[in-house]
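The freezer alarm interrupted the setup, so I double-checked each line after restarting. Inputs confirmed:
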Amino acid sequence: SQTIHQWPATLVQPVGSPLSLECTVEGTSNPNLYWYRQAAGRGLQLLFYSVGIGQISSEVPQNLSASRPQDRQFILSSKKLLLSDSGFYLCAWSPGGANYGYTFGSGTRLTVV
Amino acid sequence: RKEVEQDPGPFNVPEGATVAFNCTYSNSASQSFFWYRQDCRKEPKLLMSVYSSGNEDGRFTAQLNRASQYISLLIRDSKLSDSATYLCVVNNQAGTALIFGKGTTLSVSS
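Predicted 3D structure, all chains:
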């Protein structure tokens, strides 16, 4: 069966520090991968999605970037965190496009201080 | 008009009650519809897909009205364990990803 892993679960980082969140999927190949952010009291915001290695689509221009160095690995990064980057970061995968429901990882709760 | 709109609630109901959530979406070309459930401080989990003819999964019934761009979720015989936030989900304009509503919070009490 397919599983999705995200780490770390919780992170507290100072303003201006870099960020690297990793997500990996097991038990499937060539998944579509997604990064969402959920700010406190707000809905899920799509940040990036990827349909293959090296293929990244950005939905919202901001202080973040994403990379997909391997088929089942998706990384979210920032060179310098802002206070507004705080939130609940969720990685998700699907076997295809938006016709399929997504399975989410357990998320990373990021607090920028 | 927002892409996906939901009444945020909260809906406070007693055990055994029937409760209905509604959702509207702006993209008339949307083809994929889902309801997700999110427990406090947890990741969203797929509750059910929503099909044009309507579909049922135990105590849960989902309906889609394409003409009105409206989706509903009905929960019968509410349980304490149904307490959560329910997210209405629709595919985006390009059909490449899913757009989530902000969710409707349900609290079931004994």
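Quick read of the result. The radius of gyration of chain B is 13 Å.
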